[in-house]
Design goal:
The protein is mainly α. It has one domain (3-195). The protein is 79% helix and 2% strand. The protein contains six helices and one strand; from the N terminus they run H-E-H-H-H-H-H. It has helices at residues 3-34, 50-55, 66-72, 76-108, 115-149, 155-195, and one strand at residues 45-48. The longest helix is centred in the last third of the chain and has 41 residues, at 155-195. It is elongated.
């Protein structure tokens, strides 16, 4: 191995070790956050349903009206919907962190262009795309729900939503190319080992 390649591998090992520690901390913080999901059922049962929640503000990206929900209470179906959404989102985040940690473990041990690393990178990308899809579904559902119940004034929100989604899709494209490059590197490494 040439000295420049060895120093690059050393930098990858070092950075992967640091990132793995950060992800471990994030994993525990996310697990701790999961404990608060059932708290939605502590909100009094009342009259605020999905329609009232969506229509309580003209901006679909505004914050959840906590004071109103605590005062008037939410329907059980809305509580269940919120519970399911946050459970699914946090489960995907935990899975993503788990697979990224495994990928970084491979990198920190110097196994960069291996089939295991490629598999972890592909799985991580798939989970991340699932998280984006879940969020976009909720955002577009909210937008069209409000659009059906209110007249006008929603075009600027649509373009804001569309541009944010487009940025994420471009980022996914770049990450997909990086995974393909990792896959090609793994194939080249296997071929070089076979020739030796």
């Amino acid at each position: 191995m040439q000295p420049t390649q060895h120093s690059r591998t050393g930098r990858i090992k070092k950075m992967s070790t640091y990132l793995r520690k950060i992800l471990t901390f994030s994993f525990f913080i996310t697990c701790f956050s999961c404990l608060f999901i059932p708290a939605v059922f502590l909100i009094p049962t009342g009259t605020i349903g999905l329609t009232e929640l969506m229509m309580s503000s003209s901006d679909i990206c505004s914050q959840f009206p906590v004071a109103t929900a605590l005062h008037e209470g939410m329907t059980m179906s809305l509580k269940l919907g919120i519970f399911c959404y946050f459970t699914a989102a946090l489960a995907l985040v935990l899975l993503l962190i788990f697979h990224l940690r495994k990928l970084l473990s491979s990198y920190s041990s110097g196994e960069i262009f291996t089939e295991a690393a490629v598999a972890q990178a592909k799985t991580s990308l798939l989970i991340w795309v699932s998280l984006i899809a879940l969020r976009l579904f909720i955002e577009f559902f909210s937008y069209f729900f409000v659009l059906l119940h209110k007249a006008g004034g929603q075009a600027d929100q649509f373009w804001s939503l569309f541009s944010g989604s487009l940025n994420e899709l471009v980022l996914v494209g770049f990450l997909l190319i990086a995974v393909w490059a990792l896959e090609i590197g793994s194939d080249l490494k296997q071929e070089s080992e076979l020739t030796i």
